[in-house]
Every structure is written in structure tokens, then in C-alpha cells.
Fold this sequence. Notes:
Strand content: 5-15%
Largest sheet: 2 strands, parallel
Helix content: 40-55%
Low-confidence stretches: none
Amino acid sequence: xxxxxxxxxxxxxxxxxxxxxxxxxxxxxxxxxxxxxxxxxxxxxxxxxxxxxxxxxxxxxxxxxxxxxxxxxxxxxxxxxxxxxxxxxxxxxxxxxxxxxxxxxxxxxxxxxxxxxxxxxxxxxxxxxxxxxxxxxxxxxxxxxxxxxxxxxxxxxxxxxxxxxxxxxxxxxxxxxxxxxxxxxxxxxxxxxxxxxxxxxx
Length: 202
């Protein structure tokens, strides 16, 4: 009987008790927060952004190339190392990443453009062709000019190869002449160049 009293006296209050009402209330609050967020986002009309346009300025990547600069941690962003974007007010460390940034979604949105391109009509394409035809100078070359230039270049390469072969032949002939110089035998004997061909004395 003492054992049954000991079991009845065990304190299990440290265990978490499941309260269904409390969890239902938490779920209602969470749903209310989510719906409030979605309502606050959709209050205004959707932003209409302009389609992508051609860049009307030159991207300057080479102006600071090869120059040294002292960089301090307290310097403003525009004077820190790397490329500074005035639109987004950020610094990008190298030219490749800078180009990625100015062509990217974040920068284009800051300029008020979407990442969609406006579709051109037939008239716009025809006008563009006309502008390009007018801009074309008469000194430019056609396909025939290109073929002629390729042919001339091949002829020049063949001529260069022919000259190289002739030079090699001349060098070989020159070496043969140098190896066997023509000398009077009497003069050679007086100078002591008696007979290089053999070691026998006659």
C-alpha cells in the first residue's frame, strides 16, 4: 500500500500540456498578420515601368586604369576603390561586375525600367534600316571586296613562303661554299695548310 501512495505523489507538472484553444488563437493571429501584410502591399496600383532602352552614354571603364589611389575606410563611397554607381549608390570592385550591375535588374529598376524589351513594328525596323544605309560610307567594302582581300592575303602569304624557301636554299649554297673555299695550293702550303684531308705526309 505504501508503494501505491508513492506513485500517486509523483510530480509531473514539468511536462508541457497541450492546450488546443491556445494554439488555435496563435494560428488566428498568424493568419491575421499574413493577411495584413498582403493588404498593405496591394494598396496602391501596380507600378508601370518603361521598357528597356539603349544606353545613351559611354561606360567609362578605362579612365582610372593603371592609376594608384590611397583608399581609407572613412572615404565616401564615390572615392573608394572600385566602380561607383551613382544611381544605386554602391561600389563594385571590378569592371566585369560593374557591367553586370548596370545591366542588371536592380539598376534598371532604379532607373525606372523593367527588364522587358519593347516590340518593334515593321515601320520602325524599316526606318532603322534606312538610317543605317544612309550612315554607311561609300568606302566600306562588300562581299566581293572581302573575297578580293582574302585572295590578296593568300597570294602575299604564298609569296612570303616562296621567299623563305629561296633564302634557305641560298643559305645552304653559302654553307657549301664556305666549307670548300677555293685557295691556291701553293699559298696554302706556304701558310701551313698543306692537306687537311689526310694525315699522311708525302
